[in-house]
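Priority: low. Protein: glycogen phosphorylase. Input follows.
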Amino acid sequence: MKAIRRFTVRPVLPEPLLPLADLARNLRWSWHTETRELFQSVDPEGWQAAGGDPVRLLGAVSAPRLEELAGDRRFLRRLAVVAADLDDYVHGGRWYQSHEDHAELPAGIAYFSPEFGITAALPQYSGGLGILAGDHLKAASDLGVPLIGVGLLYRHGYFRQSLSRDGWQQEHYPVLDPNELPVSLLRDGEGAPARVTLSLPGGRALHAHIWQARVGRVPLLLLDSDVEDNDAGAREVTDRLYGGGSDHRLLQEMLLGIGGVRAVRAYCGITGHPDPEVFHTNEGHAGFLGLERIRELEGEQGLGFEAAVEAVRAGTVFTTHTPVPAGIDRFERALVARHFGPGAELAALPVDRILELGAESYPGGDPGVFNMAVMGLRLAQRANGVSTLHGAVSRGMFAGLWPGFDPADVPITSVTNGVHAPTWVAPEVVRLGVRQIGAGRTEDALSVGGSQRWDAVADIGDQDIWDLRRVLREQLVQEVRDRLRASWLQRGAAEAELGWVDSVLDPDVLTIGFARRVPSYKRLTLMLRDPERLRALLLDPDRPVQIVVAGKAHPADDGGKRLVQELVRFSDDPRVRHRIVFLPDYGMAMAQKLYPGCDVWLNNPLRPLEACGTSGMKAALNGCLNLSVLDGWWDEWFEPDFGWAIPTADGLGTDEDRRDDLEAGALYELIEDRVAPRFYDRADRSGLPVRWIEMVRRTLVSLGPKVLAGRMVREYVERLYAPAARSHRALDADAARDLAWWKGRVRAAWPRVAVEHVEALAAAPVNGTAELGATLTLRVRVALDALTPEDVEVQAVAGRVDPQDVIRDGRSFPLKPTAGPDLEGRWMYEGPLALDRTGPYGYTVRILPAHPMLATPAELGLVAAPVETEAARDAGPGGGVLLR
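Result:
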């Protein structure tokens, strides 16, 4: 008989065990070994059955066992130590509090993301974006950064993946009960659940409760629309991650952005947490948070719309994660207009101005859509990509928002992603570090970074490293066999026909891992380009290779599902199934076994479509070597000492088949000629692959400090959060009005701002040549219309030029006003230009807006530069010419 309602009956903890409840509700246990070991000792079998989830464990442990533990002095001493350690971790000073500029750092930061991958026990993530957001929160906690995370609580999470008998991906959406998750309702001073409300068209309302997860020191607020006061449609808004059509997704993003700001205000009011001075928008999904803050400023401080925009921009950071326009959320303008304005949400804001913020008003843009990333960039004074290469790709992709500027001048910087080492480094690796450099230094190296700590790895012996790598590989082999057996049983196989599973993989064979989402650009099946050649690699009698593959295709992506099926069918072949496996339902729990157990981590996306690719970072922290296309983070940090770069055929344009053939061939050759020989080379008298071990050692020493989330968050604090906080504080109501007025005046005058005449007064090039170290003196006449020199900066830009006379790696030199204005409002500027580089050289002059509250001169997207004429070309390199 089926129950009509389900709920959880929790045991009452004896008073001596009450600290267990606090430990279970703080997700620090997910990366703190001592806390996990404490819970495991409560009931080892129950711990395994609960999937390593303390909340589920405590919900199932028997009352007699609890009474037994309450009288166990040894257990209570362990409990007291772990509880005291958590209290010190949460309340003690850390890196942020001891920062030399602590008084200048923001008192609070709100970090918005549509998904968070904290632990498998809280399945609110789909892939890299969510895992990155989770690692950001954990690292912020380790560093003491006063962050508040904001997201949605999806009642079905992201889908669980299984396979049909013929290898087709199947999706399952288990219902998640928040009362069985490590979260609790945020309640007001009277004990009532706090909630936020949004107005919907037609007089409807969208209510949401606020669930709180504790991520160490960091609160994570998750909004849940499954509230009884909502109608059926509104209750389903937070049903699943990235599900539903456009209207559904728009409502999710309105709740995340607008409702999220209201949730932050409620949380700060209830708990006394400092109000955020900085708002960080992690991808465009949360971009509507800027509109809610504009509404607040208009209502509370009486700012007009334009002034409110400036105040909001000052304290906002926007991070883009996608290198392709197809990865950006875009809605029909009519749909957005219907959900804002009179009778709907944010009724006080002009709908036309809202629509302008997301308009693709640039060449090639679609006038009929509202672009969430475009709005995010327009409402953030500071923006970044997630690797150096991705920053460059983003500057090119969004250059239309800054017309007249070269992509290199587009104000989008980069902060390369990092990963949270305490989460992703295997306990066996940590124990080796503790033996080598001590517990405190190991914890400091993993959480905060510092090359001196990682340098100590260089002293670990070859045998210790090789023994560790084999233990990790052996653990992976057992994990794979267990998961593979479960998958085949789910596919309909009988236990009697699965005896072969016990011989799948070999702990002494070179093991390659490949696991990620399955969009086409990640090329899951590139390794299958030449099946016979792959079989030869797998079955090589002297230097065999084994491959573990995992990944999920989006439920609506049949193309991705076909790739999964193709890989599964190949791996089902009895000839090779002991050497290559596909594991369904890739998630955090699997990943934490997969990364440490692999010898090589494979990544072969279409360059440059991988924004960062953090899975290879997690593998590297466990001594796994990377074999990857030079994309994302690998493009900037690759060295032959610790991995291999797969050559790419970037110049083939749209001939994708030819490109795949060439790059697959390069992959096979690398494995055949370099990777496998290095692994199996045991010529040393010790019988160890000493050159391979040295690459493992260099990976840990050189990459370890770089790939940490602690390094990443420190960069965000110092390069983006602190400047944003200073701008936020400086831009009070009056300053915001002044800045908005100034921008309006500059925009109105700019069509008549021009560089009219440029000439070199001294040391002009003769016959097109000049000597290194010479100095040109430039004189420039400019028209500023109603503007003054205080409103602009006039620059000479110089550097080497390519055959098309485009300046590469240019440097700017400010010019100073020397006369003016004349009767026609023109000014004369002069300044020196040092010729500090040899080879083809060129210069130009430009005018940019200048104001102390601009984060960059390119902020307004306005630039005035000379227009080349026939007279300019005839005058030669040093002549004075009139430019029109």
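The first helix runs from residue 19 to 25. Confidence is low (pLDDT under 50) at residues 869-884.
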